[in-house]
Amino acid sequence: MAEDQPHKDAGSTGRPDEPSIEARITDIARIGVVVLFAYWSLTLVAPFAIIIIWAIILTVALYPLYQELSVLLGQRVRLAAALITFVSLVIIVGPLAAIAFNFAEGVQTLFTRLSEGSSLVPLPTENVKSWPLIGERVFEAWSLASVNLESAVKRFEPSLLHVGSVVLSKVASVGVGLLSFVASVLVAGFLFGSGARFAENVQGFARRMGGNRGVGFVQLAAATIRNVARGVIGVALLQAFLCALILSLFSAPAPGMVAFVVLILCIVQIGPALALLPVMIWAWTELNPAAAALLTLLLIPLILIDNVMKPVLVARGLSTPTLVILLGVLGGTLSYGLIGLFLGPIVLSVFHDLVMVWMRGGSAAPNTPPLAAASEGISEQN
Question: The pTM is what?
Fold first, then answer.
């Protein structure tokens, strides 16, 4: 009777529908090889991760402009990519050049005054004393610096050293970030030509992971990138341009440098007030009351303009609530710096839609944009 029973393999579990131990080990080995190569690849590209992420963000944000420009140039895709790259570099390098020229002029003025033996710090006006809370102390320190700069430096040496070290470290980090961003602009110029193929590959991967809903999430991320670029960076560029124009009309000192600081402060969601309040103080101490009042009236709307335009442009055309997008922008910037400006709203938007799909029992959200509409043309052929 025992000989009539079928012989069982040593590696079998007894049920024909279950894989053998050898098959399981083979599957685990295959997964291990894939994980190993994935980890190895990530370590190889990790030093360039920020540059690559920025390049992808720039490509997605500017791709509709690239397509329109290609059509206007008679399908000369390389020329269109070169023009967009050149203009982007000018937007970045232009303010830096203005800062460099202003700094050179300041250094030249400093050496001229040193050679003439004149005071480096002008005497403060009596209006400084009327400043609320800090007027008396600022007037005292300013007067000491204008009469005896060496004594003022010795008196405030600990504070100056601390502030100087902090400022130098911040300037160094900003310099490295700007160099990385310039490299990202150059890489994005090469990505425009392969944008359609890249979008198809990403959507194919998303379809393998989550079907059509996965493709929808990818296109939601692309639409979010474009809206953030219009609502945050676009408004920041507008504010910086208007700031430089207004300050130039009133002959304010270093308008290019102030405009560049306004641009950075608006992008990182601090706001332009930190850079424009000293300009207003300068106006009320150096200009006549009518000119100072006019400059102040022009700068106040410049401070408030992003509170009106940014929410409208950021949430335009998206089913994700405006509050979720703005929280992603603020939280991402605070957590991950400038790159978080885009990563924050993307993550919160996708997670919000995932939660909405789950709450509806797996059905797609009724307000989810169509697959082709959300991508705004990124997957169209050149």
Answer: 0.62
